[in-house]
């Protein structure tokens, strides 16, 4: 009887871990990566107009999120 509760607890813990990874950890890492890619892309660095640079960064960031399936 105690063995069944242990197995159920382990399975539950694994499911919670997978859910946390998929819905919290993974998206936050993807967002960090997309932000870094957008800010350090050569086209963004070479743009002298701050407004246009920010527009490019926002578009690149949104496209990157779509590429990874977050939007």
Give a brief outline of the structure:
The chain has helices at residues 2-39, 42-46, 50-67. It is mainly α and 71 residues long.
Mean pLDDT: 93
Shape: rod-shaped
Question: Could you state the order of secondary-structure elements as H and E?
Answer: HHH
Report the sheet-strand fraction.
under 5%
Residues in helices, as a percent range: over 70%
Structural class: mainly alpha
- The whole-angstrom Rg is 20 Å
Number of helical segments with 4 or more residues:
3
First-to-last CA distance: 45 Å
The largest β sheet comes out as: none
Number of strands: 0
Low-confidence stretches: none
Number of separate structural domains: 1
Structural account:
With 71 residues, the chain is mostly helical. It has one domain. It is 86% helix and 0% strand. The chain contains 3 helices and no strands. The protein has helices at 2-39, 42-46, 50-67. Helix 1 (2-39) packs antiparallel against helix 3. The longest helix is centred in the first third of the chain and has 38 residues, at 2-39. The N and C termini lie far apart (45 Å). The model has no long low-confidence stretch (mean pLDDT 93).
Keywords:
single chain, 71 residues, mainly alpha, 3 helices, rod-shaped
Question: Topology of this structure?
Answer:
Layout lengths: L1 H38 L2 H5 L3 H18 L4
Helix pairs in contact: 1-3
């Amino acid at each position: 009887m105690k063995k069944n509760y242990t197995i159920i607890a382990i399975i539950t813990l694994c499911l919670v871990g997978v859910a946390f990874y998929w819905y919290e950890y993974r998206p936050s890492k993807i967002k960090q990566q997309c932000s870094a890619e957008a800010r350090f892309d050569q086209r963004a660095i070479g743009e002298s107009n701050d407004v246009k640079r920010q527009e490019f960064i926002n578009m690149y960031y949104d496209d990157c999120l779509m590429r990874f399936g977050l939007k």
